[in-house]
Amino acid sequence: MQKSVTFRHMESSDALKKYAEEKSERLVKYLLEPAEIHWVLSVEKIRHIADATVTANGATLKAQYDTQDMYSAIDMVIDKLEGQAMKHKDKAKDHKASNGESASIRYTAVPEGEAAPAADGRRIVKKENQFIKPMSVEEASMQMDVMKSDFLVFTDSGTGNTSVMYRLKDGDYGLIETTR
User: Fold this and answer.
1) CA proximity to 10, closest of 62, 38, 49, 37
2) 7-65 per-position pLDDT tens digit
3) Judgement on whether residues 132 and 89 belong to the same structural domain of the protein
4) What CATH number is associated with residue 157?
5) Of all residues in the chain, what percent carry a pLDDT higher than 90?
6) Are residues 29 and 10 part of one domain?
7) Residue 106 reports pLDDT greater than 70
8) What are phi and psi of 50, to 5 degrees?
């Protein structure tokens, strides 16, 4: 982790700089490398202000705190940043991207006699497997004509994203493109 400490309106202090850098190490367990943290420590009259900006994992975390003691201001900023980093790590864990392997979509259905209605009264009565094949949008439209199907799930060979092409009532096609 790269660390930098800037002092404003006060004398630079090796003890404060070392303290801020040591406290920054608490964030390492939540952030992937390369990570940067930039501290700005300043004094305005009797307020001691600690301001930190962390850049890592494609995210920027910021926190600021002012008190009458610079060491406690640094502690409070690290506590705030640690909470933000923990929240960011949990979000990233929940929204993992697909690893690019071929995928298939599976609809599961209960046998007709046993179909339990969902909360809104609807139920799944048909099960179908769709194997997602890489193809261009033009190829997908030709495939739709050949299959006489109302929809087609495919991987767009140009973008690598999953797309759905569907037939409109007037015979034209609609396209749903996903992004990651």
Assistant:
1) 49
2) 998 999 899 999 999 999 888 888 877 688 999 999 998 899 999 998 886 678 889 99
3) no
4) 3.30.505.50
5) 27
6) yes
7) no
8) -115, 130
Continuous segment of H or E residues that includes residue 72: helix 70-94
Whole-number Å distance between alpha carbons of 80 and 53: 11
Query: Strands 133-135 and 151-156: what pairing?
Result: parallel
pTM recorded for the entire structure? 0.52
How many whole angstroms separate alpha carbon 67 and alpha carbon 80? 15
27 close to 37: Cβ distance less than 8 angstroms: yes
What does pLDDT average to over the chain?
A: 80
Q: Which residues of 69-84 are buried (b: 16+ CB within 10 A; e: fewer)?
A: ebeebbbbbbebbbeb
For residues 165 and 174, what is the distance between their CA atoms, to the nearest angstrom? 6
Cα–Cα distance measured from residue 118 to residue 104, given in angstroms and rounded to the nearest whole number: 24
> Alpha carbon of 14 to those of 4, 20, 91, 99, 180: distances in Å?
12, 10, 36, 46, 45
The pLDDT value given to residue 123: 75
Q: Which domain holds residue 141?
A: 104-113+124-177
Gap between the Cα atoms of 106 and 110, Å rounded: 13
Q: What are phi and psi of 164, to 5 degrees?
A: -130, 125
* Element housing 173 (H / E): strand 173-177
Cα gap 58→72, rounded to integer Å: 29
